[in-house]
Amino acid sequence: MTASIPNIIDPKNGTGNWADFKIPLEYIFEVAAKWKESVAGVDKPWLCWNVSPQWCQLQQRLVQSVGWTPIVGFDPRVGPPPILSKSILIDFNERFRFPVMWPHFPLEFAFLWTDRLAFWHADLVCALPVMEQLAKTYESLEDGQMAAVLDKGGRRNYLNVKTHRFWELCGCTTQGASEHQFYSGTGWWRNFSLHPKCRLSTERRRRQKYSYDSGVGILYWRNNYNGSVVPVSINLIKDGHCSEIMSKEYECASGHLTALRDLPNELEANYNIQEVARRFGVEHLLY
């Protein structure tokens, strides 16, 4: 029997937020089975999220350069980019029709559709030696392990450990890690205290003392459920993160701090992809 989806969906749901989440998990499990069919036989899938066709094509080529397969999702406001040969397009939003979808959504349910999944932000560019180092780390992961960037929020929050988190800027998960996170009620989504698998009121109150942000649940999983996380150094990749963090002159679009943040326009307005590619020695991958 096919589960039904509510007609009215909060935009936060497409970004990965357990607050007011009303979609039946059975429905997501059914949809994820179709995603699994799309990646059958792929040993090293790497999720690339399109918010700008040029940026996504560069990311696809970077991923292919280290022998991984780009799995291309996309912001529904932008649509799919040109798909390179040997890349795989999946419309993760086809059965949900959210006004916006972030890669956090399929990442949370990685255990349902793949044995291993690398991922990164749509606005991250890396030099080829860095790509090789990341790929080597990801390939070394055993099932049940994952790799991610630890974010302590700078000096201001360094001692406030309940705001620390693992950041999805880049990393890789395995089926065993993703599944254990889901059934322990942790994982990537915001407001992990409201995870449907966290049913004890005492545990929910304990979790509510932590930041609501995405990835806090991953750190909680490591610290409280013996989760194994191989750290990816922020120093390895931060220079290639084309966001407001790396630019004092960054111009934010309206709704910057909401679920409907217009990253597609912000990215192209603040960063020139040719200049970024040249800085990291990958300009030849633009064409």
What is the radius of gyration?
18 Å
End-to-end span in angstroms?
Answer: 47 Å
**SS-derived structural category:** alpha/beta
Written as H for each helix and E for each strand, in order along the chain, the element string is HHEHEEHEHEHEHHHEHHH
Number of helices: 12
* CATH fold-level name: Spore Coat Polysaccharide Biosynthesis Protein SpsA, Chain A
**Average pLDDT:** 93
CATH class: Alpha Beta
Uncertain spans, ≥5 residues at pLDDT below 50? Answer: none
Shape: globular
Give the helix proportion (percent range): 25-40%
What can you tell me about this protein's structure?
- The protein is globular.
- The protein has one domain (12-286): Alpha-Beta Complex (Spore Coat Polysaccharide Biosynthesis Protein SpsA, Chain A).
- Helix content is 33%, strand content 14%.
- The protein has helices at 12-15, 25-38, 53-65, 104-108, 128-139, 154-157, 175-183, 201-207, 216-224, 234-237, 263-270, 273-279, and strands spanning 45-50, 69-74, 88-89, 116-120, 145-151, 165-174, 228-231.
- The chain has twelve helices and seven strands.
- With 287 residues, it is an alpha/beta fold.
